[in-house]
Amino acid sequence: MQHPKRPAHTPLGQAWETFERAKEVFDLGYWGASIEVFERAKELFQQQLEDQGVAMCHAAIAAALNNNGKPREAIEHGLEALSFYERIDSKPQLAEQSQNLALMYSALAQNEKAEEFHVKAAENYRAFDQPELAAQNLLTAANLLARRRQPDSARPLFTEAISLFAEVQDPTADHARATALMQLAYLEKLENNSDAARLLYLEALEIFEQLNAHWEIGTCLEGLAAVEFDAHEPAHASEHAKEALRVFRAHGYDEDARRAAANYQATLIAASFSRRGKGYKTRKEDGEES
């Protein structure tokens, strides 16, 4: 964020000059050294009651500490920065700082805090009309919740992220929307909601086909096959597993093709047993009738 121009000879101007020097040191990769200069700039800003400058210094110190492998100390400064940004109600910086804090908490495997700050970032990105960034944060929070086996909390975040991605007329956002659909489909599969999972995989597949995203097409087909296999529909599962194998082989995804081949064989075996079972049942019924 650009700061207001100040005459260098004023105390506030000196604070901004000190901040710029610290940024130069930071950009050179001397993060530890930059912290000392940012601290000096922060003191000058505090003397002038310049909340924006104080916030920016805390945010910069947090970034430097995090780059130096000190995420716990970084979080302390990140929270201070957030507090000052809230005071001046700067939505763009609130969003960015919340996202940074979420990533720091994730690095410490504090996933509940990471979820909280990803959602907070999304709220602020929405507030200044950045639906794609909002959606990215919601999607990350949704996946963190899904990994912690909290489907009821994850589901609405997935749904909201999908809606926000749809607002953006852009192939990258389309790809992200299809990815979110596929991830929600997997969640529904784990929850044994086979009908919902099937519809979500099909919707994602349609988008990926429009984008010619071959690996994702194969992955969607595998997901569909898995849903149908679990739903005791081996014939349909076999059809989609075979197509997944074909896509992976055709586009050079050898490792995925090996996995898909094993899955396809499993569906063929299941389909064979299913046919035998139906044949036995039919013969038994015929015998009973006679």
UniProtKB/TrEMBL annotation:
Keywords: ER-Golgi transport, Membrane, Protein transport, Transport. It is found in: Membrane. The keyword Transport applies. It is a peripheral membrane protein. InterPro entries: NSF_attach, TPR-like_helical_dom_sf, TPR_rpt. GO terms for molecular function: soluble NSF attachment protein activity; syntaxin binding. It holds the Pfam family SNAP. One of its GO terms (cellular component) is vacuolar membrane. One of its GO terms (biological process) is vesicle-mediated transport. Its main location: membrane. It comes from the Bacteria. PANTHER family: GAMMA-SOLUBLE NSF ATTACHMENT PROTEIN, SOLUBLE NSF ATTACHMENT PROTEIN SNAP. Belongs to the SNAP family. This is Gamma-soluble NSF attachment protein. It comes from Rothia aerolata.
